[in-house]
Amino acid sequence: MRSIILILFSLFISSCLKLDSNLYNNDNTIKEYQLDNYTGVQDFVLDASYNVPSNLITLFSLQSQADGESNSTTIKALYIGDATKINTDTVILYCHGNKWHMDFYWQRAKLLAHTNGKNHYGVLMMDYRGFGLSEGKPTENGMYADVDACMKWLKGKGLTNDRLIIYGFSLGSSSATELTGNPRSLTPAKLILEAPFGSAAIMVQDASQLNMPADYFTDLKIDNAEEIKKVDQPFLWIHGNNDNFLNYKTHGQVVYNNYSGIYKEKYLVDGADHGEVPAKMGFTNYLKVLGSFIRKN
User: Is the C-alpha dihedral spanning 28, 147, 92, 293 positive or negative?
Assistant: First the structure.
């Protein structure tokens, strides 16, 4: 019986999005990052007006070590902006989703770099361990350590809590929420979640339609619906109302309802599926929403 249930669950999940058994859909076969020259499938491609000068793109390596690990793992990160001005700039730390590597999310990072004007804010993105050119294998604790390694780097460059905005998309919502509610190297000033998980348990229940414990299917302990209760910082939730992977009612809405901090704001994007929010909103409107939220006192 269990094998039949697992087969049915696997078939259902694969029809929604290509996932492995632990939700990671990483690709570590690439030899280099292509960025603007990447020709693979992407959620959207920006026109030339969103191009970033090469002197404002820095690709570098970081050392990440999760609790209980005896050795560090080398991960790759990318900074858009003038790294010499991190001590005065506002920085958006972007935690990407479960798909492939940073090339897939490059257009999103470029778009964020235009929040409140072209290259007004810095943007830092990383590939979690096992994704792209980052070493190791994906783990939940490793993912949190990888994001914190980016915070350590930013702190070393002079970034302070009040100028750190953390943005989590899909799988990245777990790191963004975890490290806002349970700060490590830096405490984000504001939290933005796009198409977030409610929890691994809700994901399993939605997908399987079976009243069975989540650990029957996955070892992930992601629980944004609980972790958001620890967040007091201003919170922006954005979600497509046609999201066929993480239904906004059972995932994002639960997270939003459980938040009881000082300020929250939401945007449900009509007709948008899981990766379609920026394009369906319209890039100008999307950036207007983000900029207004970040500037709000």
Answer: positive
For the chain, the domain total comes to 1
Q: Find out whether 153 and 48 touch, Cβ atoms under 8 Å.
A: no
| Residue range 200-215: mean pLDDT, rounded | 53
Count of CB atoms within 10 A of residue 180's CB? 25
- With CA atoms as reference, report the closest residue to 107 among 291, 295, 279, 292: 279
CA distance 135 to 127: 9
Q: What is the CATH number of the domain that holds 251?
A: 3.40.50.1820
The least confident of 122-131, 178-187, 195-204, 222-231 is 195-204
- Compute the average pLDDT of residues 81-96: 97
Could you tell me the residue range of the domain that residue 136 belongs to? 2-295
Distance, in Å, from the CA atom of 108 to the CA atom of 277, rounded to the nearest integer, reads 11
Per-residue pLDDT of 150-168, as tens digits, reads 999 999 999 999 999 999 9
* Confidence class for position 23, pLDDT limits 50, 70, 90: confident
What lies within 8 Å, CB to CB, of 192 at 6+ separation is 165, 166, 167, 168, 176, 235, 236, 238, 290, 293
